[in-house]
Design goal:
The protein has helices spanning 8-14, 25-29, 32-39, 82-91, 126-138, 154-169, 244-261, 267-273, and strands at residues 48-54, 110-116, 143-146, 150-151, 173-177, 188-189, 197-202, 220-225, 229-233, 237-241. By secondary structure, the protein is of the alpha/beta class.
Amino acid sequence: IKSNKLPPKIEKRYGINEPGLENLWSFDRMQMDKLYELLKDVKPQRQAVVAILDTGVDAKHEDLAGNFTSFRTRYDNDPRGHGTHCAGIAGAVSNNGVGVASYSQNNAFVDITSIKVLNAYGMGNQKTIINGIIEATDKGADVISLSLGGPSNDSRQRAYSQAVAYAKQSGVIVVAAAGNSDMNAKDYSPANADGIITVSAVDNELKKAVFSNTVQDVSLGIAAPGVGIYSTVPDNGYDTYNGTSMACPYVSGLLGLMKSIKPDLTGEGIAAGTK
């Protein structure tokens, strides 16, 4: 990817020099050039921290290191690649001449961090994930991004709802993937937790991805790009993945941007503003 040269018309549109922009159909559909233009006159109150709770993040990746804050060194590697892919979507370094980009040209708004709650096989359990939510909250995250989940029951929903409530008390916004079973997200956790923002996936025609769970019956449902998503993978690599796992960090990264400008924003406040 480093040896590829970005077509001039794309570089002119976005004002950044990432060769991977050719592969980011989401930038066109989200009108990222208009966002970049808007942000030229905006200064963040502080950098917001988006915590990726996943398989870890390759903190040394060429397109992440400049936007990465470490909570613990043991979280800063990724044997599977899933967490690193999510991290690039939420906060890849923009305008550095490699890979992909994220929500601001000058990288002044959002930092990414990692909390490892899934193992090298991408598996985890409720206790580990809830402990990760608590740790991210206690260490000052602004947004928690959960590209994970599974079938729910009453006790799981209650437990996740309590963890989300704990995060919300500290002003943290929690975001979760809706799930990839073409079912209703109300039956999956943590997607069905009270107060969580639940993200389904759309394709490049802005139609529901065939695999995506639906979000009409959760309290704060939204959709984001989740098909053919090009992002970072470990060892300075890049790859294309599909899933609500990819849609989730698109929302998390945008919320981080918003929280950097208005730190007191809540998930409910943002949702109310879209109606």
